[in-house]
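The methods section describes the discrete structure representation at length, but only in general terms. Each protein is reduced to its one-letter sequence and a matching series of backbone shape codes. I believe one specimen quoted in the main text would settle the matter. An entry of this sort, consisting of the sequence and the corresponding backbone structure tokens, reads as follows.
***
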Amino acid sequence: MTQLYRLDADAAAIARAFDCRAGDDPWAGGYIAPGSFAPVITAGREFIAGPKKGRGQHRMVPRIWGVPPPPSAQDATRGITSVRNTESPFWIGNLRNSEFRCLVPATSFMEWGAGIDVEGRRNRHPFSVSGQRIFAFAGVWKDSEVPTFAIVTCPASPRLRSLGRDTMPVILPPDRRTQDTWLHGGWDKASALLRPIGDDKLLENSSFS
């Protein structure tokens, strides 16, 4: 699973790309690794009680990548960065309540590959998305003592399977209607979006610097 991605755009550019309020998010661009803060886009109703009334204004907020694991986890200090089983009791409530879903903006991501390179390091494969300078992973957020999020995964595309991956992050199409479905739709419609992006949309970069 993805353990590093980049978001080479500042908060104002992200807000324009996703038609959301940037608020006081200080993001200026760079790497995101597990345990670090990154911008996510929510439906903007985290602190509003009562029934939903229309789309509302989406909101960009900083959250830590990696949700604290359940008490039964072997390593209680290691945050969970990805959702591999959407039927897990740990995730099911948040995923089915649309207000806990979020968009995770990115400009590229890195996947580990099978084998090692000429310098003896594990192969790394950085990707961007054709036609989308800033794209969105499907995400979900949770609150405990700290504000956190995780990226939702799906079965790997044929190209990523050839690199030794069995899952990949869900990359949502760029149209606003699809993104609104993830943020607002019922689980029957939102879960239909959990499929791999076409291999023709994945552009492998020569570096990740």
The first helix runs from residue 11 to 18. The chain has one domain: 4-46+55-204. The chain is about 15% helix and 35% strand.
